[in-house]
Amino acid sequence: MRFRNPFALTLWVSCCPILPAGSAIGQTITSFDPAGSLGTYPYAIESSDVVAGTYYDSKHVSHGFLRRSGGAIARFSVAGATATVANAINDNAVIAGRFADAKGVLHGFVRATDGSITTFSERGSTSTATSDINIGRVIAGYYTDSSGTSHGFVRASGGRMTSFDVSGATGTWPFAINDSGTIVGSYTDINSPRAAHGFLRSKEGSIDSFDPSGSANTYAYAIDGGGDVAGIYYVGTEAHGFVRTAGGSITSFDPTGSIATYAESINVNGTITGYYYDSSHVAHGFYRAADGTITVFDPVGSAGTFAYGIDADGDITGNWMDSSHQSHGFVLVP
C-alpha cells in the first residue's frame, strides 16, 4: 500500500563542504551529515547527483535520507519501522530500501519523488530485502522462506512480484538491475553450498552463471547499461575486483598495494568504484576507468574510506571514518 508517511517528519537541512580535495589532482570531495546523525552511510547516487543512504540517530536507530546536489537533505523513515535503510536510487530520484517492523521482520519499500512510501513483501516470506531499482521502477532483491532458503525476486512498477532461482541453487541473491531489466547477483548450489557463483538474468528470465578463473566465491554486485558486470571474487581468503564484459570476458584487478579489493558499482562508461585495504588494514576509495587506470582517493583526515555508488558523470558517493570512528558521507567530483 502506498501512503504519505504521517509519522516520520521529512526535514530539509543544509550541509556545508568541509573537505576541499582528495589525494588526486582535480578532485573535489564534499563531506556531509544529516542533522543529528551519529553515523552517515550513503549507498547510491543518481545522474543529477542526488544521493540516497542511511544514518543513525542518537538512539542508534537507522533512518533513510535523500541529499540533493545543492546539499539539502530530506530525512525519512517508514511509518512504524524500528529501522529504515535506503540503499538504492534510480535516475528519477525514486528510492528503494528495506525496513524492520516492530517484530524485527524485514520488508521492502519504495519512496516516490513526492515522498510517499509503498511497502511490500514477498508472499510467505520471513524477510524481504531490496537490492536495486532501475529507471522503470523495477526492483530486484531477495527474500527468505520459512525453511531459511533465499530466493530472488523482481518487482514490477505496478507491484507484481516474480520469484526466481538459478537452476539447482540452494540460495539466490540478486544485487543489481540495469535499465534494460538485466539482473546480476550470486547463488550457491548443492555441489558447493559454501561457495558463491555469479549469475546474470535477462529480462526474459534466462540465466547464465560465471566465475573468474580460480574463484572460490564470486559476488556480482553491479551491472551497467551495456551489460558489463563488476564485483569481487575470492582466491582463498583474498578478495579481488573483477569486470565482466557483456561478451563474457573477465578481467581481474587490484589497486597497487591492495590486500583486499571490493568493487561496488559501475557506470555507463565502464568506470568502477569501490574500496580496498592496504597492508596496514586501512581502507581507501578508488575508481577504475574503462582502460584500467585506477585512481585512489581519501577525504582529508579519513581513517577509512568506503565508496559505494557512481553516476554517469563519474561522481562518487560513500562514507569515511574520522579519528573517532564516526562515519560521514561524501560526494566526490573527479
Summed up:
With 334 residues, this protein is mainly β.
Task: Describe what this molecule looks like in 3D.
- By secondary structure, the protein is mostly beta strands.
- Helix content is 0%, strand content 54%.
- The protein has no helices and 30 strands.
- It has strands spanning 2-4, 12-14, 28-32, 39-45, 51-56, 62-67, 72-76, 83-89, 95-100, 106-111, 116-120, 127-133, 139-144, 150-155, 161-164, 169-177, 183-189, 192-201, 207-210, 217-223, 229-235, 238-244, 250-253, 260-266, 272-277, 283-288, 294-297, 304-310, 316-321, 327-333.
- Strands 1-11-10-9-8 form a five-stranded antiparallel β-sheet, with no helix packed on it. Strands 2-7-6-5-4 form a five-stranded antiparallel β-sheet, with no helix packed on it. A four-stranded antiparallel β-sheet has the order 3-30-29-28, with no helix packed on it.
- Strand 24 (260-266) and strand 25 form a beta hairpin.
- It is globular.
- It starts with a strand and ends with a strand.
- Residues 1-23 have low confidence and may be disordered.
Describe the secondary-structure layout.
Blueprint: E1 2-4, E2 12-14, E3 28-32, E4 39-45, E5 51-56, E6 62-67, E7 72-76, E8 83-89, E9 95-100, E10 106-111, E11 116-120, E12 127-133, E13 139-144, E14 150-155, E15 161-164, E16 169-177, E17 183-189, E18 192-201, E19 207-210, E20 217-223, E21 229-235, E22 238-244, E23 250-253, E24 260-266, E25 272-277, E26 283-288, E27 294-297, E28 304-310, E29 316-321, E30 327-333
Antiparallel strand pairs: 1-11, 2-7, 3-30, 4-5, 5-6, 6-7, 8-9, 9-10, 10-11, 12-13, 13-14, 14-15, 16-17, 17-18, 18-19, 20-21, 21-22, 22-23, 24-25, 25-26, 26-27, 28-29, 29-30
